[in-house]
Amino acid sequence: MTAAGDAPAPAPGSLERQTRRLLRWYPGSWRERYGEEFAELLLAELAEQPRAWRRTVNVARCGITARLAAAGLAGPPASTAGARASLGTLTCSLAVFLTFGTAMWAQLAVGWQWAPPATTATAVAMLVMSGSLLLLAVLALLAAVPVGWVAITAGFRQQARGLRAPALLTGAASLVLVVGGRHFGNGWPGTGGHWWPHQGLAPGGIAAFGWASTLSVTSYWAHAAALASFPPAEVAWMAASPAALLSLATGAVRLVRRLELSPRVLAYETRIGRAAAAGMTAFLAGALCWVTQAGPGPHGLFRTGDIDAAGLAVMAAALATGWLAISRARPIPPVRAAGHQ
Amino acid sequence: MATSRQPGDDPSPLGSLGRSAGPATLILSSLADGAKHGYALTKDIEAFAGVRLAPGTLYEALSRLEGQGLIEALASDDRRRPYRLTAAGAEALHAHLQAQRHVADVGLRRLAGSWGVA
Q: What is the pLDDT of residues A93-150, one digit of tens each?
């Protein structure tokens, strides 16, 4: 029996449910390490004080912070695992940025195959975007070499447990993107098969491949009637290619997070990451120049639309996340006792 | 050229914990007399400092302290896992409390001189 005015004591099952709900704020890795003992503490707290909105807010805030820390975006960068998480988040940001950036660049590169831009702003924007994209491609290659080497040597030493699935996912997704991009790129009139065009800043084959592999980044999704007139295979590719892009990014991020990279390799990858963030910044400046300054150009080949404005917003968000992640990728050696007893 | 220290600068390991430095000091002080699990820590801190650490804040600080090697988890048969201070943690707590004591001494001395507050 409860005293007059007191809320009835909650049943043990309800406390368990409340505890499980609160634990969901935290990431899986955190729950795996602290979940049981934290649940015990919550059960004791809930039994003492069943309703406390401040406690709920506190757990939610700390859970979100733990999720950000797991992504290398919060908390002290005190461990190599934290640095790996930051590099993983940068890889993820770069994947999102490149998807929208390549879609934008390919539109301009394909347009230039037909006619050069009429305004200096478009030409400068295209030069900046092409240069940045080339830099990012070189940096991606430089970053992939040591990671690939560590993955291969781990495989030879039978330490590839947990690496096989992300490696297979990355390989399969790359294959799907290359095959699909080549297939649908060749179907694009005016560029397919013309690797070295008579005009234009970028080889036609590369422009067509970039266009085809990011075909899903389009405003046609909002125009069902126009979309219905497309060949079914192309619509299927538009729906399937984001899954391939997502799988590629997921596989790469998991590889980076699971590989035991030495402090030297981590420092090297961090330097590459900073250069990549600078390259992304330059690309975004070029894209901003095109969207805000350039006109439609001859035959409307360089016209901007809502999808480009949306792309700019997504790239800006990805860039901000990437800079935050890479600024935290500083492995700090653990504290050592200096003989104090 | 020597640079002056800024307010809030703390070269000790606890200083690098930012907003968790307060809870960290309370936790390390509580563990200074022996190992305790989460709920025992909450109760002990409430008793000696008059502060009740919210569960999220407590475990945020515990995970950071463990990550920095200032505390370590002990094996346990039940779901409540006790923590104890490491040698590095004892050293960091000692340095931090000495610095706090210096600030407290200066403040009290000046209060006594200018305001007559003993």
A: 999 999 999 999 988 888 887 777 778 888 888 899 999 999 999 999 999 898 888 8
Chain B contact for A83 (CB, 8 A cutoff): no
Q: What angle do CA A99, A105, A107 make, to 5 degrees?
A: 105
List Cα–Cα distances, A136 to A48, A132, A279, in angstroms: 56, 6, 6
The DSSP letter of residue B82 is P
Interacting residues of A178 by C-beta distance below 8 A, sequence separation 6+: none
The ipTM, to two decimals, is 0.81
Predicted local distance difference test score (pLDDT) of residue A340: 42
Token output for A24: 């969901």
Distance from CA of A150 to the nearest CA of B (A): 25
* Three-class secondary structure of residue B83 per DSSP: strand
**At A256, is the pLDDT very low, low, confident or very high (cuts 50, 70, 90)?**
confident
| Separation in Å, CA of B107 to nearest CA in chain A | 29
Alpha-carbon distances, residue A236 vs A95, A217, A269 (angstroms): 22, 14, 36
Instruction: Determine whether the interchain pair A78/B87 forms a contact, defined as Cβ–Cβ distance below 8 Å.
Output: no
Size of interface A-B (CB pairs under 8 A): 88
Question: How many CB atoms within 10 Å of residue A55?
Answer: 17
- Cβ burial A279-315 (10 Å sphere, 16+ → b, else e): bbebbbebbebbbeebeebeeebbebeebbeebbeeb
Q: Which residues of A touch B86 (CB under 8 A)?
A: 337
pLDDT given for residue B2 in this prediction: 40
Report the alpha-carbon distance of residue A157 to residue A129 in Å, rounded: 42
Q: Kindly report the average pLDDT of chain A as a whole number.
A: 82
Contact B42 A76 (CB under 8 A): no
Minimal Cα distance from B70: which residue of A?
A: A335
Percent of chain B having pLDDT more than 90?
A: 68
CB spacing of A40 vs B38 below 8 angstroms: yes
Reported as a single tens digit per residue, the pLDDT across B32-66 is: 999 999 999 999 999 999 999 999 999 999 998 99
Interface test with B, best of A15, A30, A40, A41 (most B CBs within 10 A): A41
The pTM score is 0.70
By the CB < 8 Å criterion, does A335 face chain B?
yes
Q: How far is B20 from chain A (nearest CA, A)?
A: 10
Across the interface, which of A44, A59, A337 has its CB nearest the CB of B91? A337
